[in-house]
Structures are given as structure tokens and as C-alpha cells.
């Protein structure tokens, strides 16, 4: 039973990791990365590492995707607005 | 570099990694086994010190020096992000109050969710830090929850509101003071799990806020001057 849960969590992790790789648009990829972070947290809980799971969920589902989204936004802003142009 | 050269470099690196990985894992205890040489030593050590939480005992007592290194790595990376993303001469920052930088197309439901989640998340973060010596969690996890919880204000309100509740100089000083306190604790009083959790929580929370603040500035405020 416990083994079945571990195998299921591992398969889910592999599936989500593949989904991250095959998502081509960076903004969408950040969202999928966030979901992958959550799945990785579930895997750590299943493997009896709740402390690591908490770190993973906090960093992997919130902070890293947020930084990626902000970076993408900054890049788009620098590219779409010509210098001095507002709005 | 040509695709062929890149492939060769990748194959060399991959082969080296594969060799190291196999060497590193070949003598590990079996997956799911009940006996682990490191576990035997640390758990008996932790139990001998009457700790309620073995993980905390390992992090902040038996291997406090390692944790100190990890905290300084985090501080160095936060510092590096702040330095790299500082405003350079060709850029100028627009003042946060002059424009509306609210999330333009945010559903009201999402704003209300942000409002409701903010106090809950803050309390949860404080709980994870304060209760880390007893239950899963601790300074690092709670610090990240606290540091990111503040940004729910941006989701629920707008950027000026966020900028008002997190004055950067306060968090910069907080980061430095907390890091210094943790160094003193780790060197002089390793094992004071609650106090070390609090120092780590403050340090990590400030680091997250500072790094995210720099990214927010880049995304919303900085523009290249003509």
C-alpha cells in the first residue's frame, strides 16, 4: 500500500516534470512549474520528509514562479516600450 | 560553439555526472530499509539531548555549523540579486506613487482571496517559525511563508500599498541583524533551537522580501532613460 502511494507520487512527479519541459511559453511554464513544485512537495510528504516538503512548497510553488513571472514581465516591458515612452 | 561541440561537452559532463552518481549511490542502504548508519547516530544523539524534534536537533544543534553555511549562502545570493538588479546609471526609477501599478485585470474574487489569505498566511508563518522546535517546519520554511505572504498585498491592492508596508531599509537592516544574530547563536549557543529558528525566520523572510522587491522594481518601475 505504502509502496503504491510512493510509486504514484513518483509517476505524478515525472509526469509534471515532463509537462514543464513541454510547455513552451515561458509565462505558462512558470504556472506549470508552480504545479510541479506542489507535486514535488507531495512526493516529499509521501517519503516522510515534511520539513523538506514545506520548504519545497514555499519556494517551488510561490517564490520561484513569482520571480520568473516578474522577470518575464520586466523583459517584455523593456522590449515593448521604446525608451521614454510611457503608458 | 557549434552544435557538435555542445553535444560533446554535454556528453562529457553527463558521463562524469553518471559516474559520480553511481559511485555515490552504490553503497547506500536499500530504499525503505529500517536501518541507516547516519540515522542510527543522529537519532540516538538527539534523543540523548531530550529534544522533541530530531530534525531541529540535527539542523540547529548537531550540525548548526552546516546550517550557518546555508544561511550565509542564502544571504550572499540575496545580496547578489540586490547588487545585480540595482538601478544603473542608464536607468531611472519612477516613483511608486506617481502611477497606478495595480494588477490591471484582476478578478474581484482574486482580490478578496488575497485579503482573506493575508492574515491567515501571516499567522501560519509565525506559527511555523515559533513551533518549529516541536513540529515540522522551522525558521526557513516559516520565513519564506512570511516573506511571500506580504506580497498578497500586491494581489489584493496595488504596488504603492505593497511598497508602503515593506520599507526596504528596514528589511535590509533586519536581514543584517538577523544574520549576525544567527552567526553568534550558531558559534556560541548551538542548540537554542527556538532562538535560532527565530533568527533564521527573520533572516530568510527579509531575504525573500528584498529579492522579490528588486524583481518587482525591475518589472514595474525601472525604465531605460533615453
Task: Give me the secondary-structure topology.
The complex is a heterodimer of chains A (87) and B (226).
Chain A: H1 2-22, H2 26-46, H3 50-80
Helix pairs in contact in A: 1-2, 2-3
Chain B: H1 3-25, H2 37-48, H3 54-62, H4 64-84, E1 91-93, H5 108-130, H6 139-149, H7 152-156, H8 159-165, H9 168-188, H10 193-221, E2 222-224
Antiparallel strand pairs in B: 1-2
Helix pairs in contact in B: 2-3, 3-4, 4-9, 4-10, 5-6, 6-10, 9-10
Detailed description of the structure:
The complex is a heterodimer of chains A (87) and B (226). Chain A has one domain (2-80). Chain A is mostly helical. In chain A, helix 1 packs antiparallel against helix 2 and helix 2 packs antiparallel against helix 3. Helices cover 84% and strands 0% of the residues of chain A. Chain B is mainly alpha-helical and 226 residues long. Chain B has one domain (53-224). In chain B, 71% of the residues lie in helices and 3% in strands. In chain B, helix 2 (37-48) crosses helix 3, helix 5 (108-130) runs antiparallel to helix 6 (139-149) and helix 6 (139-149) runs parallel beside helix 10. Chain B is globular, with a radius of gyration of 22 Å. The mean pLDDT of chain B is 84. Classes of the chains: A mainly alpha (87), B mainly alpha (226). Chain A binds chain B through residues 3, 50-51, 53-55, 58-59, 62-63, 66-67, 70-71, 73-74, 77-78, 81, 83-84, and chain B through 32, 55, 128, 136-138, 140-141, 144-145, 147-148, 151, 208, 211-212, 215-216, 218-220, 222-226.
